[in-house]
Design a protein that fits this description.
Length: 372
């Protein structure tokens, strides 16, 4: 963000929890009211192009959930990091900047209509800030490097070839390349981290810029799933010499490739892993943990929209006596946006990549053995 935006965003006043609770309670009505207000406008086509009104509704839902996370954490850094991405996501899909501004005014109004607070309240002050910085944010969103999600630097040969094969939908080519590159568990870890992660981040940026379709992005992820499943079979017989680990994406989190990589490399390192994949309901995850009592939980969050659910899961776990010795390792793209977020959430550690994940878990395991 430009220095002036960054300075004033840090100066915004913290939101008291009563105001956040009222915002949470009124969220559904506010999402519906803002969507209705935009939908009833006579200049709708100028505002949203030929996008369906459902996209406006979905954007309001994402906005409301995200703002709730910002208010709960009082993390204006998180807000500042995400704003250019939101603006760009609208712009490239033909939703005008004018529409973004109208939505902000509508949100400010529904705060009062739903008795969240009056026009001078602290949440209203955040919306005033957003409205007054609208032009600067729209300008900033045109700068490709303004978010933490921008394309990684052009990769080496292997990264480029794998990405190209994924974009061509060449499943066989991807599998062949992976099989040629990997003969040991260490090479598998390197391939996951260095090649697959790079390719999917690149594909995410192409999707973000509307340069590839949702179908192409889905196809690429599906190929990665097929390739990693084929590779897994080669290494699955590793002896289990360490503790139990449950690896899960957070509730509502659909991104599972990162969590799956964590599960695979922990298993290859001798851990007894239960992998539960994407979007597990909170109550189910808590029941599973109480039953299995693992040594550690590895919790993955890719999109900041799901941070609030992850925070609540961690808070619930920390309130359960029988899980008091279980370690929680946080990871995923969403945690990388604000460096100390995992600590604010009450997790026991954070790892940004697969090598750090192994190092963290093994250190905890050794510490645990020393106390036995
Ligand atoms: C594939 C994909 C999808 C697929 C996921 C399918 C699947 N089966 O996983 C689908 C289509 C479902 C999807 C949906 C959405 N997506 Co998406 N998606 C992606 C994409 C292209 C790749 C994700 C991925 O697999 N990355 C590769 C893995 C290996 O990377 P990783 O997750 O970061 O994991 C590494 C580390 O973080 C770490 N790690 C990960 N988890 C953990 C856990 C622990 C404990 C530890 C220690 C470490 C760790 O280890 C891994 C290896 O180093 C990303 C782009 C990106 N930059 O990641 C966008 C991306 C994450 N998606 C994005 C968005 C916005 C969405 C949607 C909101 C879109 C929408 N409008 O609906 C939804 C959200 C749905 C939801 N409720 O979760 C944005 C998020 C940005 C933002 N501002 O929030 C991204 C960044 C795209 C972009 N550039 O804009 N998406």
């Amino acid at each position: 963000m430009p220095a002036d935006c960054r300075t004033d965003i840090a100066g915004l006043a913290a939101i008291p929890s009563e105001n956040t609770d009222r915002y949470a309670a009124a969220l559904e009505q506010m999402i519906a009211a803002v969507t209705r207000e935009i939908g009833e406008r006579t200049d709708l086509v100028q505002l949203i192009g030929h996008n369906p009104l459902q996209m406006v509704a979905m954007n309001q839902r994402h906005h409301g959930q995200f703002m709730l996370t910002v208010f709960r954490l009082n993390s204006f850094e998180l807000l500042g990091r995400m704003l250019p991405w939101f603006y760009r996501a609208c712009d490239v899909r033909g939703i005008s900047f004018d529409c973004c501004l109208l939505e902000l005014h509508a949100w400010k109004k529904v705060l009062q209509d739903n008795r969240v607070e009056d026009a001078a309240g602290p949440i209203s002050a955040i919306y005033d800030w957003l409205i007054s910085h609208h032009d600067a944010l729209a300008e900033l969103s045109r700068n490709a490097d303004a978010t933490g999600f921008s394309r990684p630097p052009d990769g080496d040969g292997l990264q480029q070839i794998f990405t190209a094969l994924l974009l061509q939908g060449d499943h066989g080519g991807c599998l062949k390349l992976a099989e040629q590159s990997i003969t040991t568990p260490a090479e598998l870890r390197h391939f996951y981290e260095h090649v697959v992660r790079h390719a999917l981040y690149t594909i995410g940026t192409l999707w973000e810029r509307n340069e590839i379709s949702v179908a192409e992005e889905h196809q690429a992820t599906a190929i990665v799933g097929r390739v990693t499943s084929a590779l897994y079979g080669r290494f699955v017989a590793t002896p289990q010499t360490k503790g139990t680990a449950i690896v899960s994406a957070a509730p509502n989190e659909f991104h599972e490739v990162g969590a799956r990589m964590v599960a695979d490399i922990l298993e290859l390192d001798g851990w007894d892993v239960t992998y539960v994949g994407a979007s597990i309901p909170t109550a189910e995850l808590l029941d599973l943990l109480k039953k299995a009592r693992p040594f550690l939980l590895a919790l993955s969050v890719a999109t900041p929209l799901n941070l609030e659910k992850a925070r609540m899961v961690i808070a619930s776990i920390k309130g359960i006596a029988e899980l008091s010795s279980m370690r929680i390792l946080a990871g995923g793209l969403a945690f990388s946006i604000v460096p100390d977020l995992w600590q604010d959430f009450g997790a026991d550690g954070y790892a940004a990549n697969l090598d750090d994940t192994i190092a963290h878990c093994n250190q905890w395991w050794q510490e645990g053995q020393e106390h036995v």
